[in-house]
Amino acid sequence: MTIPAVRTFDNHTPLVDTELLPGRGTGVNAAHRMYEHLIGIWATGVIEAAHDLGAFTALISGPATASELSSKLGTDLRATRVLLDGLAAYDVVERSRAADGQAVYTLPPEMHDIFAPEGLYSLVGKIRHDRNVAWSAWRNLATNVRTGARNSDGSQQLNQISEEDYTSLVRGINFWAPPIAATLATALREQGWTDGTGRTLLDVGCGTGIYSQLLLQEFSGLNARALDAERIIPIANAQAHRLGVADRFNPEIVDFWADDWGTGVDVALFVNIFHLQTPESARELLLRSAKALTEDGVIAIADHIVDEDSTDGNTQNRFFRLFAASMLATGGGDAFTVHDYDQWLADAGLRRVALLDTPMHRLLLVKRA
Amino acid sequence: MTIPAVRTFDNHTPLVDTELLPGRGTGVNAAHRMYEHLIGIWATGVIEAAHDLGAFTALISGPATASELSSKLGTDLRATRVLLDGLAAYDVVERSRAADGQAVYTLPPEMHDIFAPEGLYSLVGKIRHDRNVAWSAWRNLATNVRTGARNSDGSQQLNQISEEDYTSLVRGINFWAPPIAATLATALREQGWTDGTGRTLLDVGCGTGIYSQLLLQEFSGLNARALDAERIIPIANAQAHRLGVADRFNPEIVDFWADDWGTGVDVALFVNIFHLQTPESARELLLRSAKALTEDGVIAIADHIVDEDSTDGNTQNRFFRLFAASMLATGGGDAFTVHDYDQWLADAGLRRVALLDTPMHRLLLVKRA
C-alpha cells in the first residue's frame, strides 16, 4: 500500500522506531503500524487514570516524586511510578532527576488550565464525558454498525449524550474556539469590518458562548445574541462575565425550531450544530438564518465538513471521518460533505463564499445567492 | 513545556492540523495535543469493530463498496460507510472512486496476512486478547494504581492473561520477531558464526518458536532446543513445519524452575521473558543460563529494557514505559532498566557485551564475566 504522503505534526508521540524496520510495503511493517494504532487506547487510559486519581490536581500544586505523589494520593508506590513514567512517555508531564537521583515529575504551566475543572480551556468535561460514555460506546462500535444506531422499532437512536453529560462536555471543548474565532475575525475584517460597531452576531446553540465572547473581544463595537437551552444559558452568562464581555453578550433562551430568531443579523454563527442535523433540519436552519440576516449578512458554519476534492490524506478529512465514527458510536450525527452543504444552500437561496481550514474544523462562509 | 525533539516516523496518522495553531507553549496548543491523545481510543475502536464484524475477512476476498459490504455482513449501509471511511482515515484500507462515483474500499495485499487468523504475522490473536482483557483493564487502570495490582491479602495479582488468552496472544505478536532475529543474526556473524554448524540455540519460553525458526532459516547448520509449556509446544511444532525448519527445531516440555536445562548451549535466548520476572526470579534465570552455557556462549535477552542514559524522548524508552503501564493494567510485569540487568548479571558472574536497539525492543547480549 502506498500510504498517501501526510504531513507530520507536533502532536505525535512515536512508539515504534520504524527506521529500524524493513522497507515499506511489507507485512511486518504493516503489522507494526497496525499494532501502534491498536495501542491508541493506552494514551486515553493513562491520562484518564491520572485524572481519576487526582494526580493532575496534585501536580498543579507543584512538582513531585513518585513517592510524594503516592503518599498524597494514597496509591501504591511502584504503580504510581509506572503511571507517571507513562504520562512522561506521552509528554504530559516532564521527568527530570533530583540531586539524589530520584525522578521528579512536573506538570508544565500550560497544562494546568487543561486539567483544572475551572480552566477556560479545560478538558476535564471532555474526560468526564468519555469516562461515562466513550469507553463502552467504542468497545461496542460493531453493534451500532450492525443496527445503524437504530432502535428495534427502526427509529434513529438519539445521541447517548445525556443532559448532564452535555453540560459537562460543552465546557470541555472550549479549546477548539481560539483558532476558529481568529479565522472568522480575519474573514470579517476582509469584508470591511473594523471594530464591529453597529453589527449584530447571532450565535445559534452558543454552548458556553466562547466563540461569541472571543469575537466580542476582537470587535469592541460588536453585540452578540446567544441562543441556547435554559440549562446552558447560566454557563454562558458566567463565562461572558469572566471574559469581560457580558455587557455586549445577550443570552436568549430559545427553541430554535418554534421561536422567531428576529432580524438584522450581520453574522449568524453555527459551531458544531450542523453535524447533529438531518438533511431536512439542516435546510430548515438555513432558511431560518436567511430570514434573520441583513442583505449583505454572512452565515458562518464551523463544523466537520468533508471536502471530497482535497488531497488524499488531508488531515481535516481524516479527523472529520473519525468524528463521524465517534458520533456513530454514541448514536447520532454525521460529517456532511461540501457537496451536501452546497445543495442545502442552493435550496435556501444562499451560496458558499469561502471554505477555510482550521486545525480541527472547516469554516464555511455563506451569503445570499 | 519544551517537548523534547522527537523523530517522527511513518506510522503516524495526524488528526490535528497543528500548523494552523498558535505557537508552542500555549494552553490552546496543549489542549489540542491532549485531545489528540485522548482520542487514541478511536483507532483501537474502529479497527476492532471491523474485525468483530468480519469486514477484514470480506475485504481479503476483494475490494468492495459500502453497499456491497453491508449486504455481505448484514450491517447498516450508512454505518458501514462511516466505519470504512474511519478505516481509510487511519490508512487501514485504501479509498478510491469507481467510475460511477461510489467509493471503493481495498485492503492492501500486505495487510491480508495481518487480519487473517492463520497469517504468520497475524494480529488477530492480539485483537482477540484485547477484546477480552484490554478494554476493561485500561478503563480501570486507576484501580491498579491504587492497589499496586495486589489482591486484598497483599499478594501480587497474577497477570490477567488466562491460558486461553495467552495461547491467542502468543500467535498475535510474531510480527515483533523479524527485526529482532535479524539484529541477533548480525551480532552472531560478528562473533564469527558462519552457517552455525555445530552450534546449539536454547530458546527459553519459545512461544510459537518464531525467533528460533527465523534463526534456523538464517543459519543452515544451527540446531535449536525450544522450551515451553505443554499446551504451547504443539503450536511451535506446527509453525516449525510451516517454516521448513522442523528437522532442526527440537521442542521440549520443561518446567524452567524445576527441570535441568542441560549444557553445551551456544546461545540462550529469552524474548519477552524478563519483563514478567521479579528481581529474584530474573537472577535465577541468569544463573541457570550460565550453567547451561559453553565457555564463550552468549545469552541474548530481547525485552523492554529502559536505558536511562539515552536521550529524552527516546522512542524505545517511551514504548517500554507504556508497556509497563500496560502490564500494570493487566496485573503483573515491569520494564526493568539497564542498571537492573547489570546488577543481576554481576551477581551471576556475567557481563553485558552489547545493547542493541530494535523497533520495539532492546537486545541485550551477555557473556561470562
Task: Describe this protein's structure.
Chains A, B: It comes from Kitasatospora aureofaciens. Chains A, B: Keywords: Methyltransferase, S-adenosyl-L-methionine, Transferase. The structure is a homodimer of 369-residue chains. Chain A has 369 residues and is an alpha/beta fold. Chain A has two domains: 18-114, Arc Repressor Mutant, subunit A, CATH 1.10.10; 163-368, Rossmann fold (3-Layer(aba) Sandwich). The first copy, chain A, is 45% helix and 16% strand. In chain A, a hairpin with a 4-residue loop joins strand 9 (350-357) and strand 10. At the A-B interface, helix 1, helix 2, helix 5, helix 6 and helix 7 of A face helix 1, helix 2, helix 5, helix 6 and helix 7 of B.
Task: Quickly list its features.
seven-stranded mixed β-sheet, alpha/beta, Rossmann fold, Arc Repressor Mutant, subunit A, homodimer, 2 domains, three-stranded antiparallel β-sheet, 369 residues, 15 helices
Low-confidence stretches of chain A: none
Order of strands, main sheet of chain A, comes to 6-5-4-7-8-10-9
Decide which structural class fits the backbone of chain A.
alpha/beta
| N-end to C-end Cα span of chain A | 44 Å
Rounded Rg of chain A: 23 Å
Main sheet properties of chain A: 7 strands, mixed
The helix content of chain A is 40-55%
CATH C-level class of the largest domain in chain A: Alpha Beta
Query: Would you tell me the overall average pLDDT of chain A?
Result: 93
* Beta strand count of chain A: 10
By CATH's scheme, which homologous superfamily of the largest domain in chain A applies? Vaccinia Virus protein VP39
Tell me the quaternary state. homodimer
